[in-house]
Amino acid sequence: MQFVVLLLAVVGLPLFVVIALLALFSYQGLDWPISSLFNDIDELADKAHLLPIPLFTFAGFLLARSKAPDRLVRLADAILGSAPGGLAIVSVCACTFFTTFTGASGVTIIALGGLLYPVLMKRNYPEQFSLGLLTSSGSLGLLFFPALPVFIFAVVYGFATNSSDVTPEGLFLAGLFPGILLTLVLCGYAAYVGNKHGIERTTFSFQELREAFRGAIWEAMLPGLLMGMLLSGLCSLNEIATLTVVYLMIVEMVIHRDIHPWKDLPRLVAESMVLVGAIILIMTMIMPTKDVLEDGQIPDKILEYFSQFITSKMAFLLVLNVFLLVVGCLMDIFSAIVAVLPLLIPFAVKFDVDPLHLGVIFLVNLEIGYLTPPVGINLFISSFQFRKPVLTVYRSVLPFIALLFATLMIITYVPALSTWLPEQFIEKSVGAEEVLDEEDSAEDMLEEYGAEENLEPESGGNLDESGGNLDDDDGNLDESGGKWN
Prior knowledge:
Blueprint: H1 2-10, H2 15-29, H3 37-45, H4 52-65, H5 68-80, H6 86-102, H7 105-122, H8 127-137, H9 148-161, H10 168-196, H11 206-220, H12 222-232, H13 237-255, H14 265-286, H15 289-295, H16 298-306, H17 313-330, H18 333-350, H19 355-369, H20 377-386, H21 390-413, H22 416-448
Helix pairs in contact: 1-2, 2-14, 4-6, 4-13, 4-14, 5-6, 5-11, 6-7, 6-8, 6-10, 7-8, 7-20, 8-20, 8-21, 9-18, 10-19, 10-21, 10-22, 14-18, 16-18, 17-19, 18-19, 19-21, 20-21
């Protein structure tokens, strides 16, 4: 029966239906009650990290469907346009910014591609370079706050391990330096191409900068505000997500009036929730398979089999990168996290890979997989958006894949890039909380047994009757405190 389901998947059956049917048939084969499926679904629904997902998704759609892209591109061009490759650098930064909020690089290619591609052509940038730049830059923002894949990774990791080793806050901090490094590498290449081809630069103008800043100030402040709230700890992620939506609704509907509250808002809510619904539906359907895998000890068997070929951490990380690049070509990032991550966790534990470092490696590989021939999804989106043959897009992304893969190797084999920042902001606070918890537990135990923090001198070191004295005759606890038999 499972073979029939997989065959239906090949001919186009939706992924969540395939996963649900496989889970149902597996439960039936193990003689497990079908009703227990809903226990996993209920457990997933209790995850607090899920709440920011619809809010940040809606915030991303508010930005993408307004005129914020035009304003931000104008501001970035006013700042960087006079530098070598200035407009190309602007394109990298703009695409990174919008992918961070939409959580989907394909949406960024569609939203910004039509705006930036004609301008790049007008400034005489090479066509192949422009295609590759816009196709690859759309993936860079998936490590930055508040990108959706980070939330999904944290939820799935916690569900698979029953631990809190990975939190969205920690993973966002872990991805900050690697994300900046990836962005700087592409910006450096853009500057090199601009200088090599003698691309004409714009003249820096304080007046243009002032006008552009005045128009985009509200959107330009948003990343700084979000990171400030995240690092300060003044707000929880749920509160930050809510404040972001309220902030952008005021900016785009009241200040700029790009979005009409009656005509546009209902449509944006519907569009954004379709994406959220797809993510949650896939997660809901695949979570019950965790019990099936654990019962059959599938991850352990996979680990045992491959351990005879992979004997070192260096080798494991190399194989992990190749494997995840292939996964990134074949699956969307949300499905890949939910389906593949639980199988990789035992390997990461065996080879002592930090969970946050694993998360960064996982997400960067899937970013690159999005634009890796022959079936990376962004290649086809780019081909459709720019009306170019797929083979032309293939050739255009090759230099960018090489640069991103080289940077991936640095991120993989220099774990401090991912682990240093979380250690400064997360582990210290966690340690303080543990000390407080231990003190609270000690106080609770004292209260439970009726002991006072300061014993009276005249008690002779013994507990009084209300707390249960030791009886002088037999050394047993009296009736008020309970007796040893």
